[in-house]
Amino acid sequence: DLVQRRLHSGTSWPNSASPQWFKRGDGTARFQFHSAKVGDAFHASRMIDYNEDWLFSTIFRLDGSVALRSTLFAFPAAMFSLLLMYLDDFVEDFRENLGIAMLASSQIWNASTVVLVFLLGFRARQGLARFWEGTGLLHQMRGEWFDTVSNCVTFSISARPSKPDEVMRFRHTLVRLMSLCHGSALEEISGDVAELRVIDVMGLDAPTLHHLWECSEVHQFNRVEVCLHLLQTLITKALDDGVLKIPPPILSRVYQTISRGFVNLLNTKKITDTKFPYPFAQIIALFLLLHLIMSPALITASVPHKVFAPILTFLAVFSMFALNFISIELENPFGLDANDLPLTHFHSESPEDTVAVCAFQGAVRPFGPGTPEVAGLTNPKLHLTCEVEEGPTHQIA
């Protein structure tokens, strides 16, 4: 059928914004997400790793900095203040005629500055809260789905001697589906992630791949929800077939971890779907504009010096715009910006990559110092004995 022809030929789906399956020449496979921006090689961002031991290396780093954007507003304001100083020298009663002297003696500028600082502080707190909530939810999602895979692999140990093929098939399918689910979740919340690799999707059978493609491309279903449904179906079938030899009340924990991980994902999407309220953004933009216009005039009236007045004007405008741009950077922590969360790094450390070793090489059962296996050791506290399903007991110093 169409899916098998696409997979065996190694070609991709025609929709460049959809998930793609690729078959490489070495026989391995890759599941790839394409950015909507065709022709650009985007990759998920990795958060800036910086060191504060050297002050100047931190100050003059441009990657991820808002200093340049803030300077685009602060520098013209400083030049305007310098222009006003020279106009004072050449035009008599220049400030009195424009009413700048009267404004300098009033509290209008001070009051507007206080309101602007309050609004910017509120936005910065909200942005930082959204940023930390986003990274916390990603780690919680990863932890819940790690428990799902780890518990399923552990619950299948008892059935390994009697049904080795069924157990290995279950584990391989479980790991692949969870890897696909985790990658789809990160792609969904980012929107612009170019490529996320997952564990060997070609290991899934053609009907499963066709079902995933049909749900995503034809019916426009959510890929994560489809993968989670397939996972729960797989686990239920494994329980009926005796692959998971565990009482149903204990197995219910697996369904709970799947559900809690998905709830964390939905809470993460709450951040991406809900922007900072527009009325606040509008008022902040208005006060920033007033601050940009009034600061040169009022600072030059208070500090009539051709050197210090432009410097103070630059600092006053720069600080306000920088704080606003920082808040904007933090409000949506998922994307491709330098200050966004490192989604590729999160996915490379996703739970299925860790449990895959256990799924392919066999579960390891540790023994403590009090067991007969280590009774003859001189100092059992310094040793650990592990039993691997496929091989003999190994002693690790």
Whole-number total of structural domains: 3
Q: Return the average pLDDT rounded to an integer.
A: 75
Q: First CA to last CA: what distance?
A: 54 Å
Broad structural category: mainly alpha
Helix run count:
14
Count of individual beta strands: 5
Estimate the strand proportion: 5-15%
Q: Give the spatial strand order of the biggest sheet.
A: 3-4-5
Evaluate the radius of gyration.
30 Å
**Low-confidence runs of at least 5 consecutive residues:** 1-45, 380-388, 390-397
Query: What is the H-and-E element order?
Result: HEEHHHHHHHHHHHHHEEE
What composes the largest sheet? 3 strands, antiparallel
> Rough shape?
elongated
In helices, the fraction of residues equals 55-70%
Organism: Cladocopium goreaui
GO molecular function: chloride channel activity
Subcellular location: Membrane
Keywords: Ion transport, Membrane, Transmembrane, Transmembrane helix, Transport
Would you give an account of this structure?
- The structure is a single chain.
- The N terminus and C terminus are likely disordered.
- Strand 4 and strand 5 form a beta hairpin.
- The protein has a 3-stranded antiparallel sheet with strand order 3-4-5, with no helix packed on it.
- The protein contains 14 helices and 5 strands.
- The chain is mainly alpha-helical.
- Keywords: Ion transport, Membrane, Transmembrane, Transmembrane helix, Transport.
- InterPro entries: YneE/VCCN1/2-like.
- Pfam families: Bestrophin_2.
- This is Voltage-dependent anion channel-forming protein alr2987.
